[in-house]
């Protein structure tokens, strides 16, 4: 069979296109795009005239089978999404899963990813973190989900749409308290890139005061909860138990 390349593309700044991505997209027989019209501009920019076909995880089975058949015939195929790394809050999971089941080699071509870029510049603990993708769009479900994350001590990372970002921050303050530190990473790699962090009590009025800060694309990064007292107590007790067992 051919190779399925999973190719990252820029998240705004076309200069972030990696040379290997250009080479691979030029040489494959077919590009599976999240949206062919959206990708046309990128492909044109880099003189890539490889045939494209639309693919997303809700595509019908036939579309999926067709791409898999091409791979079985020995054609190399590349998967791209509208921006960043495919499969990260983007289509591709079904295709990659099926390709691997079929014994097709799947090769990633690394590049931009919004949450990794945001984390690298946010100044929040980055040794451990959880990526939560998009929160539920409605307040009730969103607050419930936020509640389930209340004790999470790792840095939390979310994607959010511009028309929901303020509501989302308000729900975070309601559920986790207004002192929680949040970093907003907006329009990364683009002209109006802004990375701003503050406790929610200051962050929300800052964003409300300037409607420009509510436009564009957002990553929200949240400082994890302080380790709960009881959890610490449990650790101390456990340490004491181990130490006592060692005593003569
Ligand atoms: N696959 C992409 C990636 O690797 O990051 C993410 C695709 S997801 C459908 C789109 C979301 O990613 C946006 O709503 C926003 O939350 C985030 N995003 C994408 N580009 C961004 C940028 N330039 N600045 C900030 N956030 C961005």
UniProtKB/TrEMBL annotation:
Its EC number is 2.1.1.198. It catalyses: cytidine(1402) in 16S rRNA + S-adenosyl-L-methionine = 2'-O-methylcytidine(1402) in 16S rRNA + S-adenosyl-L-homocysteine + H(+). GO terms for molecular function: rRNA (cytosine-2'-O-)-methyltransferase activity. One of its GO terms (cellular component) is cytoplasm. It is found in: Cytoplasm. InterPro entries: 4pyrrol_Mease, 4pyrrol_Methylase_sf, 4pyrrole_Mease_sub1, 4pyrrole_Mease_sub2, rRNA_ssu_MeTfrase_I, RsmI_HTH, SAM_MeTrfase_RsmI_CS. Gene3D superfamilies: Cobalt-precorrin-4 Transmethylase, Domain 1, Methyltransferase, Cobalt-precorrin-4 Transmethylase, Domain 2. Residues 4-201 form the Tetrapyrrole methylase domain. Keywords: Cytoplasm, Methyltransferase, rRNA processing, S-adenosyl-L-methionine, Transferase. It is an enzyme of class 2 (transferase). PANTHER family: RIBOSOMAL RNA SMALL SUBUNIT METHYLTRANSFERASE I. Belongs to the methyltransferase superfamily. RsmI family. Catalyzes the 2'-O-methylation of the ribose of cytidine 1402 (C1402) in 16S rRNA. This is Ribosomal RNA small subunit methyltransferase I. The gene is rsmI.
């Amino acid at each position: 069979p051919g190779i399925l390349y999973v190719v990252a593309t820029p998240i705004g700044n076309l200069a972030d296109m990696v040379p290997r991505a250009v080479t691979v997209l030029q040489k494959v027989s077919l590009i599976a795009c999240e949206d062919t019209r959206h990708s046309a501009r990128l492909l044109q920019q880099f003189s890539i005239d490889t045939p494209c076909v639309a693919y997303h995880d809700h595509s019908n089975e036939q579309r999926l089978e067709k791409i898999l058949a091409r791979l079985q015939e020995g054609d190399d195929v590349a998967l791209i999404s509208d921006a960043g790394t495919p499969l990260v809050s983007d289509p591709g999971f079904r295709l990659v899963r099926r390709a691997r089941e079929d014994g097709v080699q799947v090769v990633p071509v690394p590049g931009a990813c919004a949450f990794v870029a945001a984390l690298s510049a946010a100044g929040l603990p980055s040794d451990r973190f959880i990526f939560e993708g998009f929160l539920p769009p409605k307040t009730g479900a969103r607050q419930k989900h936020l509640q389930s994350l209340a004790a999470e001590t790792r840095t939390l990372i979310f994607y959010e749409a511009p028309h929901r970002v303020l509501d989302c921050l308000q729900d975070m303050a309601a559920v986790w308290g207004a002192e929680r530190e949040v970093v907003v990473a907006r329009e990364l790699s683009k002209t109006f890139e802004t990375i701003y962090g503050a406790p929610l009590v200051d962050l929300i009025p800052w964003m409300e005061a300037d409607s420009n800060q509510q436009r564009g694309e957002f990553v929200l990064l949240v400082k994890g909860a302080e380790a709960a007292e009881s959890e610490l107590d449990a650790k101390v007790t456990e340490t004491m138990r181990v130490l006592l067992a060692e005593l003569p």
